[in-house]
Amino acid sequence: MPHIQQLENHVADLIAAGEVVERPASVVKELVENAIDAGSSAVVVEIQRGGMGLIRVTDNGCGIAPGELPTAFLRHATSKLRMADDLGKIGTLGFRGEALAAISAVSRVDIVTRQRGAGCGAALHLEGGVPGRVEEAGTPEGTTIAVRDLFYNTPARLKFMRKDSAETAAVAGLMQHLALSHPDVSFKFIKDGVESLHTPGDGKLESAVYAAMGRDFARGLVGVEGRGGDIAVSGFVTAPLMGRGSRSMQVFFVNGRFIKSQLLTAALEEGYRNQIMKGKFPGCVLSVTLPVTAVDVNVHPAKTQVKFAREREVFDAVYHTVLDCLDAKGAPVAAPKSAERVVNPRQDFFQSMDAKTFREQGAKPSEKVAEKPPVRPAVPARPVWDTEWKSSAKVADSQPQKPLGFRPLEKPAGGVLGKAPSSVTERREAAPAREAPIQEMPVRAEAPVEKETPVKLEAAKRPFVPAIPAEQQGLDLPGQTTIEPTKEAPWRIAGEVLHTYIICESGDGCVWLIDKHAAHERINFDRLKAAKEPVMRQTLLQPIAAELSREDGALLLENLGLLEQFGFDCEDFGDGAVLVREVPADIDAGDTVSTLEELAENLRSGKSLEEKRENLLHTMACKAAIKGGWTSDVSELRVLVEKVQSGEVQYCPHGRPVAVKLTKYELEKMFKRA
Q1: Phi, psi of 668 (to 5 degrees)
Q2: Which of 55, 86, 409, 584 has a CA-to-CA distance to 31 between 20 and 30 Å?
Q3: Is 170 found in the same domain as 72?
Q4: Last residue of a domain, one of 310, 329, 348
């Protein structure tokens, strides 16, 4: 057995650094939290190359005494703890006492500080955790710490760092959370020389939300405030109609500390029950304040998870606060004006009639248009051709049609009034020689036309030319498929209930209930997964600027090549926004933002490239599928039933069953007939 020995201090520091310093964002978090604990009212964070090249944090806090600078970088050295009892009532942020020691162990650190009221400041340089000599320096009041060449002496950790864009996004997301947790502090974030975030620090949470999360998100918020015993809840939540495609916009704070809590997430979403669309998630910026003795913040190295002493009371406080405020205030979304209240300065036809009125009135012209006798009816109708071929064109959403009439012809030269020419040749002869032949267009009449015979055009006989030459008929041509006569299916569609479930009767006397959304989602998933050709795209007439969280935006930009394979053409639009120019043809342009949010969530959960690809396929298949509640055509239902009855589709991509089978015996047993 190997001998037991004590590790060297340098090795111990590297081990501690591996626990505390996971990435550049971890360094920024510890340094900024120390600046907040120092009583700063303004903090500036600068990074280069995602923080791997440089991290500089400047504050105007209380500063550090020159004689205490070397001590500050020792392990377990802190000004925030004195006794063991202090561990049970931690009210500060950076409390571990190992942050500066761990950071300096894996980087090159320069610190310049000056206490308030002191005449001169002090500077110290550390490399690999080894401090140099403290020197005097001229500097403003406060502290500036510069961290360079992170993980330069730990190659094993360095190779696991992600791209600079991803690390930058992680730091940007962290700064967003810090700015929201302390609206009384002015935060400025500069990445590669460009200012990305600047909050006013006026103490108003709404100002911090506007600056950190954008105007569009801030406009859809509802203020909430409540209390349950000694637990206070305040902040903002999104209106029910402003639901998001993922939970990335849910931000929680406990006693000023940003945390991730499934308990708070569940309480928030429970308050939105029956008020938000299925598949959407509320966003929030909620702050929970409770006694420091009722929460344990020392349960996770990154301090992003906490443990509540009274979880049920915390859940109830958040739930009732959100529910009561939503019921009292409702969603601050302006309701659309009715057609009667719309102000129309022009008062013309197209501006004074909405789509519903147009469909109901059909060819009735507006009152103002009726003042002048129109040459033709003002409203074009869907044509129902009634020529000598007796064919009719149908539209999917057709309305009951009126009989088709033709406008009487004007008196031709040499013709008889009221008698229409009987052929095209006769009409040409009757028309003036210097005028072009007149071709009358069919229009819809207001009522069945009496005493007038519809004019029928004689078609010129043309020689029949077969599409396939005679010598090639009967052969299997490349790209041609012979359509066999449709055989009678061994099942029958009995109907559809709730616009979601298809009722089908099979030949063996069984009844099937088929979830049309789940079936269509599986069909789309299999088609996308097996496709070899590029996804068909649609170019947007106007590019969509998707306002996402900074982490989601960076995650999508990091996987632009993968999104390109699925038909998205995206580019960076700044501050987490993604500009979308093309989307897949199967996706509704109105679902672009929610689709991207779900894609970002799937990219975050997927580990390997294949897992990420399958997660994206799940989202694409779901967004392009028929939704429950939609009215579907019989032909659509027939295709879905055929796929299920053939056994090709059994489960949706998420593993849910597509169909439920009830035998005749089971049905008769329900009615006590068996």
Answers
A1: -65, -30
A2: 86
A3: yes
A4: 329
Mention every residue, 6+ apart, whose C-beta is less than 8 A from residue 419: none
CA–CA separation, 14 vs 406, rounded Å? 91
Q: Cα Rg for the chain, rounded, in angstroms?
A: 36
Report the DSSP pairing between strands 186-191 and 42-48: parallel
CA dihedral sign, ordered 580, 581, 582, 583: positive
Contact (CB, 8 A) for 338 and 354: no
DSSP reduced 3-state for 310: coil
Adjacent-strand bridge partners of 513: 503, 660
With respect to residue 379, please indicate whether it lies within any of the assigned structural domains.
Answer: no
Residue 69 domain-assigned?
yes
- Give the list of residues 6+ apart from residue 211 with CB closer than 8 angstroms, or none: 179, 197, 198, 199, 200
Residues 153 and 234 grouped into a single domain: no
Question: Could you tell me the CATH number of the domain that includes residue 499?
Answer: 3.30.1370.100
> Which tokens go with 66?
């020159």
Helix (H, G, I), strand (E, B) or coil at 538: strand
Residue 195: both structure tokens together = 């200012």
Asked if residue 189 and residue 244 are part of one domain, the reply reads no
Structure confidence at residue 175 (pLDDT): 93
Residue 292 clears pLDDT 90, i.e. is over it: no
Dihedral pair phi/psi, residue 461, rounded to 5°: -75, 125
User: Which carries the bigger pLDDT value, residue 318 or residue 554?
Assistant: 318
- The verdict on 182 and 99 lying in the same domain is yes
Tell me the C-alpha distance between 236 and 210, whole Å: 12
Structural domains counted in the chain: 3
**122 and 244 co-located in one domain:** no
Q: 85 and 227: one domain?
A: no
Distance from the first to the final alpha carbon of the chain? 74
Number of alpha carbons in the 13 Å side-chain half-sphere of residue 500: 6
Percent of the chain scored above 70 by pLDDT?
70
**Strands lying side by side in the sheet with 569-574:** 537-546, 577-584, 569-574
Which domain range does residue 178 map to?
9-198
Alpha-carbon 83 to chain mean position:
48
If asked whether residues 186 and 230 sit together in one domain, one would say no
pTM above 0.70, yes or no: no
Query: With bands split at pLDDT 50, 70 and 90, how would you rate the model's confidence at 60?
Result: very high
Whether 121 contacts 113, CB under 8 Å: yes
Q: What angle is formed at CA 479 by the lines to CA 478 and CA 482, rounded to 5 degrees?
A: 100
Q: How far apart are CA 549 and CA 175, in angstroms?
A: 12
Q: Are residues 37 and 77 in the same domain?
A: yes
Question: What torsion do the CA atoms of 163, 169, 170, 172 make, to the nearest 10 degrees?
Answer: 150
Question: How far is 477 from 459, CA to CA, in rounded Å?
Answer: 33
Burial 90-128 (b: 16+ CB within 10 A, else e): bebbbbbbbbbbbbbbbbbbbbbbbbeeeeebbbbbbbb
* Residue 404 domain flag: no
